[in-house]
Design goal:
Elements: E1 2-8, H1 12-23, E2 28-31, E3 46-48, E4 63-66, E5 69-73, E6 79-83, E7 92-95, H2 97-110, E8 114-116, E9 119-127, E10 130-138, E11 141-152, H3 160-163, E12 175-184, E13 192-196, E14 206-213, E15 216-224, H4 232-242, H5 245-248, E16 251-261, E17 269-270, E18 273-275, H6 291-311, H7 316-328, H8 330-345, H9 349-359, H10 369-379, H11 383-386, H12 388-393
Helix pairs in contact: 1-2, 1-6, 6-7, 9-10
This protein binds flavin-adenine dinucleotide.
């Protein structure tokens, strides 16, 4: 088997890369170890309305709920309301993630990519130290897939990068472990995605309620691996649900447990190889939302690959524009948010309460450093010292 490009993984990052590479004329194969694209779902299913700008989804079958915005609830219950366009990458729409992934894969196939299910990459193929494709396994049988470019879009547990000798190890400090139920028969305001903060609720993370419809919502907890022990995310999730009458009467339709990187993006390009999506740690370190980043990075990766195939050059220098472009766009935001993550992690619940109290009446549509400082000075001037690194960042 010989292709221009083999993409390992049919998540959003893999399908986007495959689509844009195929649209640029590359001969692309996606391999996916699961037997159905997007199943089982491992996601809170929240995404920003910014996804519309990519024009990669047809129809609305993937859309479960159209949100007005987000509400952040501090440990003492103070609520800060944000409109959808101010609320980050996880608020705007709530998805049916399985259909969403399948729609993205359909877009790649329509552009000419092939997709092989039940096919797991088990190693990288090398000849004289040069990457030549992947070794794959399907129904117990191993075979080689040759390709000029290998794309590791194989998610948080990515092995492609490691096999290629890249530094992909995640420290527990940079990993969020999550548990979630999809609960039916629950009551909530279906127009908002809710984020609950507090060391007792979710140390180093948050609990969420993402409404999927009238009486159905994804309710989950994500906590930092360095602050947790085995089974803790599920215990905290049960505690969160049982402490709320509007959730307690709910019945679960689905349970999932998974992990998400909350690290800074890593080096993602080698000769004949690039990483994209969770595999490259392209995730918002504050929220753990990675769908928008995967979509943006996948498009850039696919377009870069298209040019490399055109010129028949597959060395690192030819693929580097992918990373360079992201450094000037997506990575600026991810790196800034990594600093914000560290600031938030250093805050006691008391400080989070003060912050929420300062911001609860703040008009976020007028967001500027000056107006933010004014809001803080008026209510809790002591916060200014704690937020100094953040205010410095806003000048970058
Ligand atoms: C509990 C939870 C909740 C989340 N909620 C949200 C949310 O609400 N909003 C948001 O934006 N993000 C959320 N995320 C993060 C989001 O799911 C990821 O950032 C996103 O899926 C990354 O896309 P990807 O394509 O890089 O990886 P994935 O979607 O993980 O896709 C990787 C694919 O590669 C396949 N694969 C892996 N290894 C191999 C192999 N060796 N051979 C072949 N195939 C392979 C996998 O089967 C998988 O299909 C959440 C994550 C978790 C765990």
């Amino acid at each position: 088997m010989k292709y221009d490009v083999v993409v390992v993984g049919s998540g959003p990052a893999g399908s986007m890369t495959a689509r844009f590479a195929a649209e640029s004329g590359a001969n692309v194969l996606i391999i996916e170890r699961r037997q159905e694209v997007g199943v089982p779902v491992l996601c809170g299913e929240g995404i920003s309305k910014g996804v519309d700008e990519f024009k990669v989804l047809e129809g609305k079958r993937w859309l479960a709920n159209n949100m007005d915005g987000a509400r952040i609830i501090s440990p003492d219950g103070t609520m800060v309301k944000l409109a959808a366009d101010m609320a980050g990458d996880e608020t705007g729409y709530v998805l049916y993630r399985d259909i969403f992934d399948q729609e993205l894969a359909r877009g790649a196939i329509r552009a000419g990519a092939e997709l092989m299910l039940n096919t797991c990459a088990v190693n990288i193929l090398k000849e004289n130290g040069k990457i030549k494709g992947v070794k794959a396994k399907q129904f117990g049988e191993e075979f080689d897939i040759e390709a000029d470019i290998v794309v590791g879009a194989d998610g948080v547990e990515s092995k492609i990068g490691r096999w290629a000798g890249m530094k992909t190890t995640l420290k527990p400090y940079d990993l969020e472990t999550c548990a979630q139920y999809t609960l039916s028969n629950v009551e909530f305001d279906r127009a908002y995605c809710d984020f609950y903060l507090g060391k007792k609720i979710a140390p180093g993370g948050y609990a969420w309620i993402f409404p999927k419809g009238k009486d159905i919502a994804n309710v989950g907890v994500g906590i930092l691996a360095s602050l947790s022990e085995p089974g803790m995310s599920l215990k905290l999730l049960d505690k969160f649900i049982n402490s709320r009458p509007e959730l307690k009467k709910g019945e679960p339709l689905r349970f999932l447990a998974g992990a998400v990187p909350v690290a800074e993006p890593i080096e993602s390009v080698r000769d004949n190889l690039l990483l994209v999506g969770d595999a490259a740690r392209q995730v918002d370190p504050i929220t753990g939302g990675g769908l928008m980043a995967s979509i943006e990075a996948g498009k850039t990766a696919g377009e870069t690959i298209g040019k490399a195939i055109d010129e028949q050059r597959f060395d690192k220098e030819m693929l580097l524009p992918y990373e360079e472009k992201l450094k000037n766009t997506l990575y600026k935001k991810l790196k800034r948010n990594y600093v914000v993550k560290e600031i938030i992690l250093g805050m006691e619940d008391k400080t989070l309460n003060m912050l929420a109290d300062s911001l609860k009446d703040y008009k976020f549509d007028e967001l500027s450093t000056l107006s933010l400082v004014k809001a803080l000075v008026l209510k809790h001037p002591s916060l200014l010292i704690k937020l100094k690194p953040l205010l410095k960042l806003s000048r970058l």
